[in-house]
Request: fold
Amino acid sequence: MTEMKIIALDIDDVLCRFTPHVHKYFNKELEKLDYWCPIVMNGKFGEGWFLGHIAPDEEFWATVPVLSLPEEIDFEFDYYISSFPREMYDVRMKWLKENKFPDKPLICSSNKLETCKELGVNVLVDDKAETIHHLLKNDILGIHFINEYAGFKPVGDFITNLNQVKYRGRRPRAAARSRPAR
Reply:
């Protein structure tokens, strides 16, 4: 018998263009960079760029541009699991609804591995390499989403478009590297 897949999606830099929006917020030119490296981000935007500026700014969270179109999600999933300021929960829910993403529970999590275990999630699509490593070590399938501005190497089998999730494990490696132009 096949195990039922409980699938969750990250939001920032998977569904929305969080990192490009940060660049725009600080009036900086977007470049490929390791946006998960605090030294890189603090060097580019200054100490406290997130907690002091982005985290409390409701307009920032309400206006993040879409990265993955809702119609690219051509598979069933169960949750959104994302790390964001809890005070922005309602803003984030409104963003999902206004951008016509499927109506699913939104979980704010600072520890996605533990959240996946608690919810029984066995597949998480996320852009953070460290999260993917933690998931894979714990027998949870982490699918690494690589966007066009990621300046880091993918972990394991990766995708560049959400419509590749349904082919996970069966598509040729070369297909995972292409992303349609927008």
